[in-house]
Structure formats: C-alpha cells, structure tokens
Amino acid sequence: MSSFSTSSIDESSNSKLPVREIPGDYGSPFFGAMKDRYEYYYNLGQDEFFRTKSQKYNSTVFRTNMPPGSFISKDPKVIVLLDAISFPLLFDNSKVEKKNVLDGTFMPSTDFFGGYRPCAFLDSSEPKHATLKGVYLSLIYKFHNQFIPLFKTSVSAMFQNLENEMSKNGKANFNNISDAMSFDFVFRLLCDNTSPHDTNLGSNGAKSFDLWILPQLAPLVTLGLKFVPNFLEDLILHTFQLPFFLVRSHYQKLYDAFSEHAGSILNEVEKSGIKRDEACHNLVFLAGFNAYGGMKVLFPSLIKWVASGGKSLHTRLANEIRTTIKEEGGSITLSAVNKMRLTKSTVYEVLRIEPPVPFQYGKAKEDIMVQSHDSTFLIKKGEMIFGYQTFATKDPKIFEKPEEFMPERFMGDGEKLLRYVYWSNAREIDHPTVDNKQCAGRDLVVLLCRLLVVEFFMRYDTFTVETSKFLVGSSVTFKTVEKKRAT
Q: Where would I find the H helices in 89-197?
C-alpha cells in the first residue's frame, strides 16, 4: 500500500514555483504535424511518444502536435499536461472550454448524431448542456433500484456463454461475450427491460454500435496490421474522415429501436423542452458511445488486471465476497458490495492504471497560469490543452510503484489517493452535476465493475487469460477458469 502523504503535494502546489516558458515546438505548419503523427502511430507508439518528449524537454508540460493533424484537424497544436498536479486544470469549467473537443482537435460530422451536437460535445456554459445532463442524472437516480437485478440477468447469460465457449473451444474470447452482455444491459435499462432480441436489432445490437463508433474514432487509432504498409493505413484512417453513409443503415436500426422501446424516457426528456427527435439521438449517443462504448473498453481491462493478480488475489477476493454475501443474508445488495474493501480498491486501481478514456481536451478561456510539480507555465487564451490521463494517474511523485498493479492501493489511508484518480473527467472524490463535465454515470460505472468482480467470484475460484492490444483497450481471451468448489 502506498505510504504517500497528500499534504506534501498540497503545500508545494501553493508555494512560489519558478515561471518557465512552455518548452517544445510544432515544427513547420504541415510537415511538423505529419512528423508527429508518424512518431505517435508508427515510429514510437503512444506512450513512448509522450515519454520521449517529456524527457527531451525535462518537463511534464510541453508543446506538440496531436493526431490526426493535417486535413482532419484545423489546428493540431496542443499543450500537453502529463502530471497529476497540472492535469486537473482540464476540470475547471471557469478556465477551460469543452465545446466540440470530445475527440480532440477534430469533431466527427453531426450526421452521426442526427444533425445534433450531443451533450458530450457541449460546453457546460451552453444552456442545453444543463438540461441534458440533468435528464441523465435524473435517469440514473430513477433506475438505481434496477441496476443490480438487471445486471445480474445480463451477466448470468454472459457467464453461461463463456462456459459454453470454453467447453467447445478450450478457450473463450471475452470481448465478444462482454460486448453482447453490455449491450443487453444498457438496452434493458433504458427500454423498460425489453430484450434487444425481441426488437428489430435481434442479436446485432452490439455490432451495430461498433460499426457506428468505428468511423468516428478511426482518425485516432492504428490497426497494427503488419501486412498493411504504414503509409496506406495512414492515408485511409488519418487523412480524411470516414463518411456517415457507410454506417447509416446500422444507425437507423439503433435509432428506431430506442425510439420505439424507450418511450417513457423520451416523454420525460420532451417535458424538459428538448425535441423528441433530438432527445432520441442523444439517448442513442448516451447508450452507445458513453455507456456501451465505455463498458467495451473497461470490462476487458478489469478482467485483464484482476487476472494479473494471480491465484493469491483471486483467493482473497473470493473470500471477501463470499463471506460478505453470506453475512448479508445470501443476496448481492448495494449494502453488501459497499462493505467489500478489497473489491472496491481493486476496481479503483484498474481505473487508475488504465483509464478507459485516456485523453482529455479543453481550450483556454483566458490566460492561465498552471503549475506542475516544479514549475509554473503561462497558457494563452485560445490555446488547446491536452491531458494524457494514463501518465497523470501513474505520476511517480504521487503513487508508489505507479506502473505496478497494486489491488490494495486504495485501502485504509490509501483512500486519500482517490483524489488523484481522474478517469471520469474529474477527481474521483468529485461528484457529477449539471454544471460540470464529469461523467454522469460515474457511480454506476464503479458499481458495475464491482458487481462484475462479485458475480465472477461467486461462481469461480481462479482463472487465467491471454491478452493483446486492441484498437481501443485490450483483447482478452480466457485460457482456464475453475468453478467454485462446493463447501
């Protein structure tokens, strides 16, 4: 467990640090951005790109170009924040504007969203943001009693599919099974417990969301295919945005399904002054990009890291979970889950070591002085600020052994370190409101991750997996799984 004391950082952040000019440069207008893009995707890779520049400039704050750059982005120039002290500037709505920066230095065509700008692309100062965010928060409160039973239904089917595939093939791809479960849960939650199999989507809901999300994020990923030359992939993915018409039919099926089966929610949104058509497009975005898209990345990551803890961690988690459930009367309840200290800490550690959304962007609303651990920097009004959460939440001046997965990190005094866990577009100790940009489902995401671990170890004793890098996140394949022994 970390022995770090937060008071030392608080004191240093209030001290008089030397003012330093932000190091780094953007190179020539066109070729500088192209060079950085190739370094980022092909020559160095994502993490090494930032690490190399940070070491070169001896600073966790510096200037560079961010992909996709030329042709797709009007302006690829950003100021990078890599440490845990400077990073929270991106949460300050009074200083940073979040209009149309969800995907970074470019925005996908609004054709993907029915011609509207969904809530995630709105700045908190825009009146419609508070209206839509308020609806999301009220929905989460309204459905809070349904989370556990609905998730249990979906996850039970997932584990049955996992066992069937293991029995048939000797291994099982977790991503595909998890995606189907995640879509089933989200659709049931928002559509009055209607199974997507009973709609026009059938068993293709998750696939339709995947196809809709892919062209939006294509400028930000690399396929990593060895038989495809880098220049060819770069031309296809990073030079021009893929058009909406390629996925129009899939999106229309999703829109029609939510329009037909989420009527009670759409009625409530209409009462807030949002047109029904716009409300439905926002609901599809919430369900697909925010909820399903988040689970698509986070659940495989969770399984990967829990697997890395080996049988020792599995035994401790199983003992805590089963003992607590037994003491609580045999049922998985919110009260029981909240008493599982190791389970909670394990989930927070996964969110710290591999944040599901690694990037944050914002544009300076005014001239801003920002501090790192050792310097103060001036960011000019209008400059784009970029934060890489994967480095900020592994800041070695905050976390002991930051690159190691330590499940007990946030137990006991370690809970104080939650203020430096930033996965939800805010500090973990903050709470989503209509006036901020923190993920409305922050608490639900944490709960679902805990429930997945709980449901898993109520069935199984230990397991092993094989992992590899995926387009976004990790690909996880179960190699072995041992069922819970009878007691």
A: 127-142, 147-169, 174-190
178's CB contacts (< 8 A; 6+ apart) are 158, 295, 296, 299, 300, 303
Q: Are 160 and 166 in contact (CB under 8 A)?
A: no
Identify the band that residue 225 occupies on the pLDDT scale cut at 50, 70 and 90.
Answer: confident
What does the alpha-carbon distance between residue 384 and residue 368 come to, in Å, rounded to a whole number? 12
Q: Taking a C-beta distance cutoff of 8 angstroms, is the pair 122, 132 a contact?
A: yes
Tokens 């409300």, located at residue: 279
Read off the amino acid at residue 387.
G
Among 299, 305, 289, CA closest to 175: 299
Nearest to 99 by CA among 389, 286, 362: 362
Query: CA–CA separation, 84 vs 396, rounded Å?
Result: 9
Tell me the per-residue pLDDT of 248-301, one tens digit each, with 9 for 90 and over: 999 999 999 999 999 999 998 999 999 999 999 999 999 999 999 999 999 999
What's 131's DSSP letter?
H
State how far the alpha carbon of 340 is from the alpha carbons of 295, 320, 343, in Å. 22, 6, 5
Greatest CA separation found in the chain?
69
Please state the rounded mean pLDDT for residues 387-402: 98
How many alpha carbons fall within 13 Å on the CB side of residue 444? 28
Judge whether 461 and 306 are in contact, CB under 8 Å. Answer: no
Instruction: Mention every residue, 6+ apart, whose C-beta is less than 8 A from residue 70.
Output: 30, 33, 34, 37, 76, 239
417: Cα within 13 Å, side-chain hemisphere: 28
pLDDT above 80 for 12: no
Place of tokens 């037909």: 260
Contact present, 68 and 37 (Cβ < 8 Å): yes
Which residues make Cβ contacts (< 8 Å) with residue 339, sequence separation at least 6?
324, 328
Instruction: Give Rg (Cα) of the chain.
Output: 22
> Average model confidence (pLDDT) for the chain?
94
pTM exceeds 0.85 for this model: yes
pLDDT above 60 (res 4):
no
- pLDDT interval class at 227 (50, 70, 90): confident
Confidence of residue 454 (pLDDT cuts 50, 70, 90): very high
Cα–Cα distance, 143 to 116 (Å, whole number): 26
